[in-house]
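Hi everyone,

Forwarding the result from last night's run.
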Amino acid sequence: MDRRDGWVILTLNRPDRLNSFNAEMHGRLAGALDEVGADQGCRAVLLTGAGRGFCAGQDLSDRVGPADLGATIDAFYNPLVRRLRGLRKPVVCAVNGVAAGAGANIALACDIVLAARSAKFIQAFSKIGLVPDSGGTFFLPRLIGDARARALAMLAEPLTAEQAEAWGLIWKVLDDAALRGEAEKLTAHLATQPTIGLALTKEALNASAANDLDAQLDLERDLQRKAGSTPDYAEGVRAFMEKRTPTFTGRSS
């Protein structure tokens, strides 16, 4: 964990295995996310990978022969996706190379995804007879539509970063040399914004896929009531009236 002023960088760090997951890396990342979640001084997170890739998914070297993969998903991948989506602060993902299998879908579980121009997203599961997991069958159709989601999942064809941006799978593609700097700049900016308001925005967006319009309108009302009681809302209004840049604290009182 690399701590900065109000934000942190979490780096998947098994570059010799393209940052593929094993139990130890799962444990380290889960612990770091829990620590970040409990730290009021941390207001944003940047997730990236070491070396030439972001994440190649599961390390298959310890998955030989029939296995209860559902148990692995229950123990590691599903909790990771839930941590990322439920974290009460924004998570930026900088995809610095290949994002394959679960690695691709873990990137999609983050709030804002930037990718190097050389990066590729690969739903590699069908190549070994598996089903997209780590939220893949949830995120893909919602982000790019059913037809594209089905083709990516069944054909396992690499999707370039530029095509991913054009389809709306990610926020932005950047030149390789610019990715890290732009990702850090964006995360540092988010760390200065109204953290509770951003957390409530995540909550609303996470719920929208399952709600009808009436339920979502009610949820927006309830969350807006909470946002309107924060010091950051009061500061935002004062700054607007005084024609100055607001100074947000991200605190509830």
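The mean pLDDT is 96.

Cheers,
N.
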